[in-house]
Design brief:
heterodimer, A: about 375 residues, alpha+beta, 3 domains, five-stranded antiparallel β-sheet, two-stranded antiparallel ribbon, elongated, B: about 625 residues, mainly alpha, Serine Threonine Protein Phosphatase 5, Tetratricopeptide repeat, two-stranded antiparallel sheet, 2 strands, about 65% helix
Chain lengths: ~375, ~625
């Protein structure tokens, strides 16, 4: 059975608390402009990544948006994912992008930011599907208590408004101030990191992209630095630095000849045809040249013997033998030889094919008037 | 006294049995008066068998079978079989129709048909010639087509080698065109199957697997052996040549004496056949009763060839007819001195003893003739029975005729099978063995001498061709540049394996599709592509024989007197069925399971990664994570 509704009627935080209180397992999908799935096990959040990989992967976005991975690394991971269907976490660990501990922290921060994001959606529709079977295939690296997560998210949502009031635009530039020599203010790890980054870049948008922490954390660190007098806001939006594109070193391709091989190829084809048409019939008779197609095969000099001169003569002798057999049969059954060979074919004594061959081979048949003798001669 | 009376009665009975002139028998059963009259004429001319009347009856029987009048047809077929001693067709037709009617006589008739087939020299020779030719053509064709299939299979390898060498120097025409250009060049040259075989062997040898090489060598050896013995085919030429001396002489076994036969035999002028010619002429004259001239020719024959037993027998017959029994005895005894197992000589000798009233000797000779199969002679020469002969004449034995064919074949200038195959091979078949042996030696040498770096082999992952120059062996497996590119920069063996596997599946699938299209061109191609070389060659051979059978409408060498050739539908159905079946088997041939191991990369790499992972999980102490304290917040 599913629990579903609109955040206007029943707030998401209440839903979270209800799930936590009831220690339910299942999937809560929250839909606004996009859909995010949150997985619970025994009332604790274990993942915000869709197990079927059909929705946007918040972890991948988190890693890509906050400078954990470079563009080329993201593309490579995406390629590996698409080809191997391996999970992102598996790839990150196996390919040693992060240690397991680093990834655990990132994983927690990403869930925190995702929860904060969906809680800040003014309109959304939610649906909670109960059942541990829904958790099959969910890769989780944490089991986070809802209460703490909710409190922190609410705090961030509240403070973010104040932060946006200070830093009105991400296009704004900030300037790092020198650390006072006497009584330097104490900086936490995140503040220290942002302060160092400010040495290279003063653009808030770029700071967020490279800070390797959640957007809120970057803003919070900037605010703290501002309060500690280590930062000042430059009102002017920073002009976009024209990215200097280094002219590509023109690799001078080694020029490979084209004309000569093309000409040689044409020549080769013509020569091959000429060889087949003229040379082969001379060297390897009879050859398969167009001129001799269908002509009878060559003869063999058998002078002095009774053997046939070649296969043509052999076939002719065969046809003669068939005709003589047929004529003899006609004589036996009719008492005379037939007027023409057509009669033999008509009476099915010989095949029509044999008759055609006889005509093709130039055999002519004559019978005497009384039909008691015949002659079968060859046309010269 | 009583004993003497019994002996006289028995002798008289025996004399009566052997000397009584019986009726013409089966000839009387011929309904058509003209055919009957023709048969009597033939008998008078001394024909050993009534082939023409037999064929007429056979044709009438076939017509009756078509009309459904089986009983009448059966009688005619039996009569046709009786009239001709070695004409097998009536028995085959009887057997076929009896089989269709579940008549148990079909088996004895089939056996009888085959027996006649074996006894008939001309049929024997035709079967031998056709068999030898079909084996030769099938062997050459199978070798050629197998090589073509192997070339198709290993074409990517050959193309890879060409590309590696060509693309380094030229950019146009593109390397992918080169294979096609070579193909057009080869086809344009039309150099004949023999030289194509040579080129294919040289092209494909280096890429072949051991099993394929063994089969190919076997086929080359077989074709070479056929080529080496091709001059023997000259022995078959005089047999199938209707005008040869052998064929002319053999006609005295089939026909009676007529002008044409006399002219044909007299036309043999070569002294090599002098004894046989004179013997044949003497026999023909003897049949006509021209005894003095017959005697002269037969004497001439035995003068020329003193070991020619049949001439002595027929000479003895001439003397017998002239009632010169002593000389007749001498003739038969001479024949028996040369060939002691000659049933006819014993029989005629027995008859001569009877004439000389030497009954004991006669009895011995006749018994011996009976033992040696005189009855077989009577069966194969039925017309001799119709003539009520006391003594029988000898024709040419099958052995004699084969000897004649051998002698005549040796006089041929060319080689018979080389002439038949010449238009296709464009190379003398009897020298093809030299070409094949040299080609094989060159191919083996190339295979040995080619450096490993230049040898093309399969990528261990995707099976694409790869050579020593372009192979990537950094990961301990020979991978093609594309496969190596897929795993470049990665460190996890599991990820690499997964990527390689994905690529392998994609490539093999597309390769299999392409291969299927290519290999369905001819039957047997799919089998050869899948490495089932024996099955592949079998289907190629079967299809080739079927195609040859269709092209020749049966056999290459045909029997002019055979009616079976006259358009049996099975001559069409059987070859077409074989071709269709071969295609069907190729089409239904399933793709074999990929025998490659699941893991491509070496085990050592995986072991290292596994150990590293285990070490990490053991040694790294677990940190306290933020969510573990989250509830505190």
């Amino acid at each position: 059975m599913a629990l579903e509704g609109n955040v206007k009627d029943f707030g998401l935080s209440e839903i979270f608390q209800l799930i936590a209180l009831q220690k339910k397992s299942g999937m809560l999908s929250v839909t606004a402009d996009e859909t995010i799935a949150i997985y619970f096990r025994d009332g604790q959040i274990i993942s915000t990544r869709d197990r079927r990989s059909q929705l946007r992967d918040p972890l991948k976005n988190y890693l890509a948006n906050y400078g954990f991975l470079e563009r080329s690394e993201t593309e490579r991971i995406e390629r590996i994912q698409s080809e191997t269907k391996m999970d992102l976490i598996d790839i990150l660990i196996r390919e040693k992008f992060f240690s397991e501990d680093e990834l655990d922290v990132i994983y927690y921060d990403q869930i925190q930011e995702t929860i904060q994001e969906i809680l800040s959606w003014p309109k959304s529709y939610y649906k909670f599907n109960i059942g541990t079977q829904l958790l099959q295939g969910v890769q989780s690296r944490a089991s986070i208590k809802v209460e703490g997560m909710l409190m922190e998210s609410m705090r961030r949502i509240d403070e973010l408004a104040e932060l946006f009031r200070i830093f009105t635009s991400e296009k704004m530039a900030v300037k790092r101030l020198e650390m006072p020599q006497e009584k330097p203010p104490k900086l936490d790890r995140q503040e220290e990191f942002i302060y160092e980054l400010l040495e290279q870049d003063t653009h808030i948008e770029r700071l967020i992209e490279t800070a390797k922490m959640a957007r809120f954390c970057t803003y919070e660190a900037l605010k703290n630095l501002l309060e500690k007098g280590l930062l000042e806001i430059t009102e002017k939006p920073v002009e976009e630095k024209a990215v200097e594109i280094e002219p590509k070193a023109v690799v001078k391709k080694k020029h490979k000849p084209r004309l000569l091989p093309s000409f040689a190829t044409i020549l080769l084809l013509v020569a091959a045809f000429a060889v087949g048409e003229y040379l082969v019939p001379i060297v390897l008779p009879p050859g398969w040249c167009a001129a001799s197609m269908g002509s009878p095969s060559g003869t063999t000099d058998q002078s002095g013997t009774l053997l046939a001169d070649g296969l043509g003569e052999l076939n002719l002798r065969y046809t003669e033998a068939v005709l003589k057999q047929g004529l003899e049969e006609h004589m036996a059954s009719r008492g005379t030889y037939p007027i023409s060979l057509e009669v033999l074919a008509a009476k099915k004594i010989i095949l029509r094919r044999t008759l055609d061959e006889a005509q093709h081979q130039g055999l002519t048949y004559h019978t005497t008037e009384n039909g008691l003798s015949y002659s079968l001669s060859r046309n010269q | 006294m009583i004993q003497r009376c019994i002996a006289i009665l028995l002798s008289a009975g025996l004399l009566l049995a052997f000397c009584t002139r019986s009726a013409a028998g089966p000839v009387e059963e011929i309904e058509d008066a003209r055919v009957r009259s023709y048969s009597y004429d033939q008998i008078m001319q001394g024909t050993p068998a009534l082939l023409v009347p037999s064929k007429i009856l056979y044709r009438e029987a076939v017509d009756l079978i078509e009309k459904g009048e089986w009983e009448s047809a059966r009688q005619k077929l039996m009569l046709a079989a009786d009239l001709s001693g070695n004409y097998p067709d009536p028995f085959f037709t009887l057997a076929k129709n009896e089989l269709l009617r579940f008549d148990p006589n079909c088996l004895p008739h089939l056996i009888e048909g085959f027996e006649r087939l074996a006894q008939n020299f001309y049929v024997q020779a035709l079967v031998g010639a056709n068999l030898a030719l079909i084996i030769t053509i099938a062997a050459i064709g199978t070798l050629f087509l197998t090589l073509m299939h192997m070339t198709l299979k290993y074409w990517p390898f050959i193309e890879h080698s060409i590309r590696e060498r060509y693309s380094a120097r030229f950019s146009f025409p593109p390397a992918s065109w080169i294979g096609g250009i070579f193909l057009i060049v080869l086809v344009s040259m039309r150099i004949g199957i023999a030289l194509y075989i040579m080129i294919l062997i040289l092209s494909v040898w280096v890429s072949l697997k051991t099993k394929e090489r063994v089969v190919l060598i076997g086929m080359i050896v077989f074709v070479s052996a056929l080529s080496f013995f091709a001059p023997c085919s000259n022995t078959l030429a005089p047999v199938v040549d209707q005008g040869s001396a052998t064929r002319r002489l053999s006609l005295i076994n089939e026909r009676g004496t007529d002008d044409e036969l006399f002219r044909l035999i007299s036309g043999i002028e070569d002294p090599a056949y002098g004894a046989s010619r004179d013997y044949a002429v003497g026999t023909l004259l003897y049949r006509l009763g021209i005894l003095n001239e017959a005697r002269d020719f037969l004497l001439s024959s035995v003068t020329m060839d003193k070991d020619f037993a049949p001439a002595y027998i027929n000479l003895g017959n001439v003397y017998f007819k002239q009632e010169d029994y002593n000389r007749a005895l001498a003739g038969y005894q001479n024949a028996l001195t040369i060939d002691g197992e000659n049933a006819l000589a014993h029989y005629n000798l027995g008859q001569t003893y009877i004439e000389k009233m030497l009954f004991a000797e006669s009895s011995n000779s006749l018994r011996r003739a009976n033992e040696l199969g005189i009855e077989d002679y009577k069966t194969t020469h039925p017309a001799t029975q119709f003539r009520n002969l006391t003594i029988f004449e000898e024709g040419f034995s099958v052995r004699n005729l084969w000897n004649l064919a051998y002698i005549e074949g040796r006089t041929r200038k060319g080689v018979f099978f080389s002439e038949i195959l010449g238009p296709f091979l464009l190379f003398p078949f009897h020298y093809m063995w030299i070409l094949l042996v040299l080609t094989t030696i060159v191919a083996i040498t190339i295979g040995i001498k080619t450096p490993k770096a230049k040898k093309t082999f399969n990528c261990e992952n995707c099976d694409r061709p790869v050579c020593g120059i372009c192979a990537d062996e950094e990961l301990g497996a020979s991978l093609c540049p594309d496969c190596a590119g897929v795993v470049e920069g990665l460190s996890s063996v599991k990820v690499m394996e997964a990527l390689l596997r994905h690529r392998r599946q994609k490539i093999l699938k597309s390769q299999a599709k392409r291969a299927r299209r290519r290999t369905l061109l001819l039957p047997g191609g799919t089998h050869i592509y899948q490495g089932k070389i024996f099955a592949g060659t079998f289907f190629i051979t079967a299809s080739l024989i079927a195609v040859a059978s269709l092209a020749w409408r049966g056999f290459y060498f045909k029997d002019p007197s055979s009616l079976i050739d006259s358009g049996s539908i099975w001559r069409l159905i059987v070859p077409v069925a074989v071709i269709v079946y071969s295609y069907l088997v190729s089409f239904l041939q399933k793709e074999p399971k990929d025998s490659r191991p699941f893991w491509i990369l070496p085990q050592e790499l995986r072991d290292i990664e596994k150990k590293e992972h285990e070490r990490k999980t053991e040694t790294v102490p677990k940190e306290t994570m933020p969510w573990e304290t989250a509830d505190v917040l």
